[in-house]
Specification:
103 residues, alpha+beta, 5 strands, 30% helix, 37% strand, globular
């Protein structure tokens, strides 16, 4: 398991995660709960891919975004995309930008 996935899982286990408005809208549309998303991340065995953000709304150009596709405990495949947020030189939480059923 990669170091980045371990760091993401530890943030989720500690309850140190937050959802963007977009992620909440996607979750509501797919009938997903925060617990579904957390279970999916904690069940993951790998980060599917790492992207560089191209959004002009990001604090830094080219922020790393981590895509995870994994099942929750009910077997539902969930797609998440997020980033680790660092404040004052230490990781503070995992911010989910997208959370929806995988297709």
């Amino acid at each position: 398991m990669s170091d980045i996935l371990v760091r993401i899982k530890r943030a989720v286990l500690a309850g140190s995660y937050a959802f963007s408005e977009k992620a909440r809208i996607e979750m509501e549309a797919d009938g997903l709960t925060e617990l579904d998303v957390a279970e999916s991340i904690l069940s993951a065995v790998a980060v599917s891919k790492i992207l560089r953000s191209t959004s002009v709304q990001r604090k830094r150009a080219g922020e790393r975004l981590y895509v995870i596709q994994s099942t929750n405990l009910s077997g539902l495949l969930i797609y998440t995309k997020g980033k680790l947020v660092v404040e004052a030189e230490s990781e503070t939480y995992y911010f989910l930008i997208s959370s929806k059923k995988a297709v």
